[in-house]
Amino acid sequence: MAHHNTVFHQILSNIPWGEFGQLVEQHGADKGVRRLTSKTQLTALLFHQFSETTGLRRLVDGFNSHRRRLHHLGCEELSRSTLSDANATRPHAVFSGLFAALLARAHGKLVSKARECVHLIDSTTVRLTQLSGKWARFSEGVYGAKAHIVYDPDADCPIHAVVTPENVNDISAAKVMPIKAGATYVFDLGYYDYGWWADLDAAGCRMVTRFKANTPLREIGERLVEPGGPILSDRTGLLPARQARSRSNPMNGRVREVRVRTESGKILRLFTNDLTSSPEIIADLYKRRWAIELFFRWVKQTLKIRHFLGTSENAVRIQITVALIAFLLLRVTRAAIDATIAPLEFATLVKVNLMHRRTIRDLFDLPEEIPRCGNETQGVLQWA
After folding, report:
1. Is 344 helix (H, G, I), strand (E, B) or coil?
2. Helix, strand, coil percent values for the chain (each to nearest 5)
3. Are 127 and 144 in contact (CB under 8 A)?
4. Buried b vs exposed e over 81-115: b needs ≥16 C-beta within 10 Å?
5. What is each CA distance from 368 to 5, 337, 360, in whole angstroms?
6. Which of 109, 319, 341, 376 is most buried (CB neighbours < 10 A)?
7. Please, what's the b/e burial string for 326-363 (b: 16 or more CB within 10 A of its CB; e: otherwise)?
8. How far is CA 196 from CA 17, 43, 178, 214, in A?
9. Measured between alpha carbons, how far is 284 from 261 in angstroms, rounded to an integer?
10. At what angle do helices 38-50 and 17-27 cross, to 10 degrees?
11. Along the chain (384 residues), what's the average pLDDT of each consecutive run of 10 residues?
12. Residues in contact with 113: Cβ distance below 8 Å, sequence separation at least 6, in sequence order
């Protein structure tokens, strides 16, 4: 009978271990370490993400129960105290660097024409306990962290992330994100900042978002729209010349307002600096924001970022990073075998068979060996 590595081992084979080793050496993560290496720490945290463990005790007990197979993963057994200390003290930059390296291999080629390159920007909040109050206090009795994501809906993959305490505004995180010249950025009211809009406009980017209810337009020019359709009006005009405290508005060029009625009957007042595309295209671009909401829902339902193994800022950042790494590994594996089942069903199947010795293709009765992903478009995970 042919020998097979575990499903977990096959998924981990997509990690660029050479680059991970360089990151460990660069940040001195294993300096003075006698027992728990960074590789074992990462493997254990990924085991936590892929399996049904719900806390540090169950993670350690579940991981150690497979002691006969840990050798083939290049790992050793864990203790709760050692893993807890590692999560609190090991540099989170090692894991964020690995996310960037893995993303370079996982992210599909972006559409070559910049105007067709769509980036969705949004954030999601994860609740924390008062034990994280030293760094994550939002208000009285409320503690949390926030993940700010730039998402490519065509590649079904995040391309950039910033993790901050919950009290950091969305626009503050957006301003440190790199701008891809000529791309289309779709976002909501949390990123309402004329200065940032002007930076995107200067880079040749198309923007689609919503107007605030109290934002007027002046020097309005009306355009014809199809009567009886979802597009209610299509107008161009100028934004207010002044901002708060009488500051001049840097977004002083002509912009566009498209009013659209959604399927639920709600009327949206959309903003864009694209003066040439049809109003239907603008409405469809804003509708694509739903893709990043589905991504947030999938990650929260499938991966472990609701309950944290540690309370320190470093431990929370590491766990969120590893959750994103787990998402990429599942996506790479599913794409490599060309699986037709839904991502959630695929993740469930992996969990059930995680430590079984069988090829992933055997789970679907597929004939060929699983290929490795190639090196493609680069991305980055940053921490604020």
Report:
1. helix
2. 40, 20, 40
3. yes
4. ebbbebbeebbbbbbbbbbbbbbbbbbeebeeeee
5. 15, 8, 10
6. 319
7. bbbbbbbbbbbbebeeebeebbebbeebbbeeebbbeb
8. 38, 39, 12, 19
9. 12
10. 120
11. 77 93 95 90 94 88 89 88 94 93 67 63 90 84 90 88 90 93 95 95 96 91 91 95 79 95 93 96 95 90 80 91 91 81 84 88 58 43 47
12. none
The pLDDT, as a whole number, for residue 315 is 92
Q: What is the DSSP string of 77-99?
A: ---HHHHHHHHHHS-THHHHHHH
Give yes or no for a contact between 123 and 146, defined as CB atoms under 8 angstroms apart. yes
Predicted TM-score (pTM) above 0.90? no
Tokens matching residue 200 = 């995107």
Element (H, E) at 143: strand 142-152
Q: Is there a contact between 96 and 383 (Cβ–Cβ < 8 Å)?
A: yes
CB 148 within 8 A of CB 123: yes
User: Which pLDDT score, from 0 to 100, does residue 161 have?
Assistant: 86
Rounded to 5 degrees, φ, ψ at 187 are -155, 175
- Tell me how far apart the alpha carbons of residues 229 and 220 are, in angstroms, rounded to a whole number: 22
Q: How far apart are CA 187 and CA 184, in angstroms?
A: 10
Q: What one-letter code names the amino acid at 271? A: F
Neighbours of 132 (CB within 10 A): 21
* Tens of pLDDT, residues 19-75: 999 999 999 999 988 889 999 999 999 999 998 788 899 999 999 999 888 888 889
Helix (H) or strand (E) holding 199: helix 194-202
Q: Assess contact for 167 and 216: CB atoms under 8 A.
A: no
CB of 357 within 8 A of CB of 368? no
- 312 contacts 284 by C-beta, under 8 angstroms: no
Q: Name the residue ranges covered by the structural domains of the chain.
A: 7-102+309-376, 203-278
